[in-house]
Amino acid sequence: MLRWFWILWAALACSIGHAATSSFDPTQNTWALTNGWIQVNLKLAPDGHFVVQSIFDTRNGDSWIASPSQPASPIHIQAGSEVFDGQRLYSLLDQYTTTAPPNGLRQVIQLQDIGNAAQFTLSFDLWDNQPVLRYHVTYRNMTASPAYVTLIDMLPWSFFDSNQRYTSFSVNQWSLEGIPTNFETVSTALAEDGTPTAVYSGAHAQQCSWIAIRDGNNRGLFAGWEFDGRAKVTVQQQAQQNLLQLGSTIPDLNHPVESMASFEMPNAFIGLFHGDFNQAGYLTQSFVEKVLAKPAPDSAFPYVAWDSYAYEDQIDEATLLQNATIASNLGVELFIVDLGWARQVGNWYEDPAKFPDGLIAVSNYVHALGMKFGLHFALAEADPSSPVLQANPDWTSTESDGYFGASSLCLSNGATQQWVIQQALHIIDDYQVDWILQDGENMVKSCTKTTHTHDPADSNYANSVQGINAVVAAVQAARPNVSWENCEDGGNMMTFNMVKNYVTSITNDASGDLESRQAAYGATYPFSMRYAERYMPSSDGISPYAAHSYMFGGNWDLMFPLAGLSPDQTGYLKQEIANYKVLRAGFSGSQVYHLQPPSPSATDAIMSYNPTLDSAIGVVTRAQDAAPQYLFRPLGLNPDSIYTVWFEVNSAVYSLPGAQLMANGVTVPLLKPFSSDIVHIDHQQ
């Protein structure tokens, strides 16, 4: 009995010890931050250098220690001719701990540059049960003159490479420019000679704002940066110096900071994982959902939605009311009126010819049917003949993205920004909007005009932080119950700042079943499933293969006319919508396992495992030329659990232990080209 008492006591002590803490030694000027999973050691050396000594995993012993050749410092910024980094010397002004929302620990350290040119406030955040350090640097200009910040490094990390070889892993965004991309994964063996591997992220850039790195022993790092503008992140190994180094730059940065004023760098985070890149993605997603992501609107989310763009801009009141009636009968929860409702892009009032009773009549009808009402809003675009540009032609950005013939607006110009905010509030209030579909070709505009309120050489940063971010923040603060969806003609701003403002993001733009699966497969590495929203066009038809292609991810948006469906199609779609609503309950908090990537000539498979429910869901889809069956081997199950395995199409039912399921798998018959099935793996009580 005594033995069990001590075991229980140890378990309780261990769980209590997982609370995030920070220990400061004033005699050595060292800090040890820990949360029971990772520990971060910081030091202000006697000579004045401020460095990160190590980050290590207290659960498995994986350690990342400073490289002797180049110790890491969280400070790397250039203001005017002054460069502040690990070579600079500092004195300690103050240090204290406070709360990091939600319910985390923040260690604040304030440093004075010994040359008296700057002060820095550094924040290091930890949360319980998260192997992630989030950090933030604020620069204060202590000189008598304005200073222009021209360089900041959001990932100023360098480590001893432990004589290992490394592989980096990143994910593309959606783009039709140049070489088209659709969330392909990019795995690169790092060169040992210091040749960098780069990730180009942000609005209208190539890749998501995330990178993961691991060595041959499955010891890994992942990192994300919270910036919607364009950024270049690099990782490189210099084996002769035993150095593994990350770094980042923000192009076209020229931000003025007045004397005694401050500049806040974008937040970023770094985390530890051990295993494959599925594990890196899962730990990233767990952190993002707990700490960063906009809370889900309600327990039913992600929604089944209908979007009017099947009609392009040829919509009217009667058409929408007819589709709303059918959508409600099918079980649709969100009804979105897309492009074409307004008089013009940039003239954000309903077209009276299309809506003789006003758009509010459609909104009221949708609400009466029990659905949420969503509206398309290309907030950074305006037609050249619209009243706003006729009155204010200088409000455009230098470069136009050509969105349906509209001109682009510069959102970091103060007057333009205030007008856009007021338009958004008018739309929400006058039409009783529950959901904003934010659309446009590029949300971070390029503008070098000297007549605007931003610095002409600072467009990338200004139109991100002081542009789109400021607009969305102001509207959301004023109307907090309205949910926002991110769209740039597709998933082309997949960043960890985006998740803070939007409850979901489109991946690709109604491109079809195969392309939708490809996008969800890649996007669910760095982002949780709700940020893999899918638009289902009419070209896919109504079939199990089509429906199953849209089951895995966030909102399932039907983008086809509903009035033309046959009774059989309507009945089938209604049943599949009901099935999806059951599936989505198991998606939240699940770990995604990427089993076989989609391609035109193979069978693809993806699954999620919910550790709370001890259950899994897999989607298996066969393209045209694949084999008539697929061996589905799940991952992540509890080896000792007994599971019931059943299918939506195949009638077979199995009862198998987790160990056997993972080792031997189950056969999924896919007898015809373009066939599919959904695999349910439920814990037996």
Key traits:
disordered N terminus, TIM Barrel, Beta-galactosidase, Chain A, domain 5, 3 domains, globular, single chain, eight-stranded parallel beta sheet, 685 residues, alpha+beta, Immunoglobulin-like
Your description of this structure?
The protein is α+β, with helices and mostly antiparallel strands and 685 residues long. The protein is built from twelve helices and 45 strands. Helix 3 (317-330) packs parallel to helix 4 and helix 6 packs parallel to helix 7 (459-478). The protein starts with a helix and ends with a strand. Residues 1-17 have low confidence and may be disordered.
Radius of gyration: 26 Å
CATH topology tier name of the largest domain: Beta-galactosidase, Chain A, domain 5
The number of helical elements comes to 12
Total number of distinct structural domains:
3
- CATH H level of the largest domain: which superfamily? alpha-galactosidase from lactobacil brevis
Contiguous uncertain segments of 5+ residues: 1-17
Give a concise summary:
The protein is α+β, with helices and mostly antiparallel strands and 685 residues long. The protein is 21% helix and 35% strand. It has 3 domains: 2-292, Distorted Sandwich (Beta-galactosidase, Chain A, domain 5); 338-360 and 378-495, TIM Barrel (Alpha-Beta Barrel); 592-683, Immunoglobulin-like, CATH 2.60.40.1180.
List the helices and strands and how they pair.
Blueprint: H1 2-16, E1 21-25, E2 30-34, E3 38-44, E4 50-57, E5 63-65, E6 77-79, E7 82-84, E8 90-100, E9 104-113, E10 118-126, E11 132-141, E12 147-152, E13 158-160, E14 166-171, E15 174-175, E16 181-182, E17 185-189, E18 197-201, E19 210-215, E20 219-225, E21 231-238, E22 243-249, E23 255-257, E24 262-264, E25 268-274, H2 277-292, E26 304-307, H3 317-330, E27 334-337, E28 342-344, E29 347-350, H4 359-368, E30 372-377, E31 381-382, H5 387-391, E32 407-408, H6 414-431, E33 435-438, H7 459-478, E34 483-486, H8 498-501, E35 504-505, H9 513-523, E36 534-537, H10 544-548, E37 556-559, H11 567-587, E38 591-596, E39 603-610, E40 615-622, E41 629-632, E42 642-647, E43 653-657, H12 658-664, E44 666-669, E45 675-683
Parallel strand pairs: 26-27, 26-37, 27-30, 30-33, 33-34, 34-35, 36-37
Antiparallel strand pairs: 1-2, 2-3, 3-4, 4-5, 6-7, 6-12, 8-9, 9-10, 10-11, 11-24, 11-25, 12-23, 13-22, 14-17, 14-19, 15-16, 18-21, 19-20, 20-25, 21-22, 28-29, 31-32, 38-39, 39-40, 40-45, 41-44, 42-43, 42-45
Helix pairs in contact: 3-4, 6-7
